[in-house]
Specification:
Strands 1-2-3-4-5 form a 5-stranded antiparallel sheet. Helix 1 runs antiparallel to helix 2. A hairpin with a 2-residue loop joins strand 4 and strand 5. By secondary structure, it is α+β, with helices and mostly antiparallel strands. It has 3 helices and 8 strands, in the order E-E-H-H-E-E-E-E-E-E-H.
Length: about 190
């Protein structure tokens, strides 16, 4: 029999002088890391075999540049996936004027800024079931970045908190709503 331990929170909430800062650690994705290692190994060996075949003395007319141009982006993509999935951190900063959501790896990434006055109906929203992009439990696939925390921004629904479990998302929404009560109003 396997003893199951209760889940530990992945989000760290810090109260600042003018708002909140929420840092969400990435999920542990052992299968994704293993898959990335296998793909990276396969592409490396495949590339070396092709380079070796092209550089044989009998094939002097062959140019390795097209093969390099084809395999290097694939190797780079695998390396990015290998580092992005287990290491990228989502940071949500809120002050009296704006909500800034960023997902970065080693300081490189993307940030989105939302005016706090235009955010309405902050809530925990279940993930949509998307055929072939979710697993049997309804969790999003590797490249699908959908969070459980949703809010209305004009006529658009925005989601934050990628990879959070529902109880932790509810706790974060409650804490944010306590600090910024206008966000939970419809």
């Amino acid at each position: 029999m396997v003893k199951v331990k209760p889940g530990a929170p992945r989000a760290e909430v810090t109260d600042t002088a003018d708002g909140l800062e929420i840092r969400i650690r990435p999920r542990r994705l052992g299968y994704a890391i293993l898959s990335a290692i296998l793909w990276l190994s396969f592409l490396s060996v495949f590339s070396l075999l092709i380079y070796g075949a092209l550089l044989k003395p009998g094939l002097r007319h062959a140019d390795p540049l097209p093969v390099l141009l084809m395999t290097m982006p694939l190797l780079g993509l695998c390396l990015l996936m290998f580092t992005w999935l287990p290491l990228a951190v989502e940071v949500i900063r809120m002050n009296g004027r704006e909500l800034i959501r960023s997902r970065k790896l080693f300081g490189i990434g993307r940030s989105s800024e939302y005016a706090l006055a235009d955010i309405k109906n902050l809530r925990v929203a279940p993930l949509p079931v998307i055929p072939n992009l979710t697993d049997s439990r309804g969790n999003p696939g590797l490249m699908l970045h959908i969070g459980l925390i949703a809010f209305d921004y004009g006529y658009k629904t925005c989601r934050i908190g990628h990879g959070l479990e529902e109880p932790e998302a509810r706790e974060l929404v409650q804490r944010i709503s306590t600090r910024f009560p206008s966000l939970s109003q419809k």
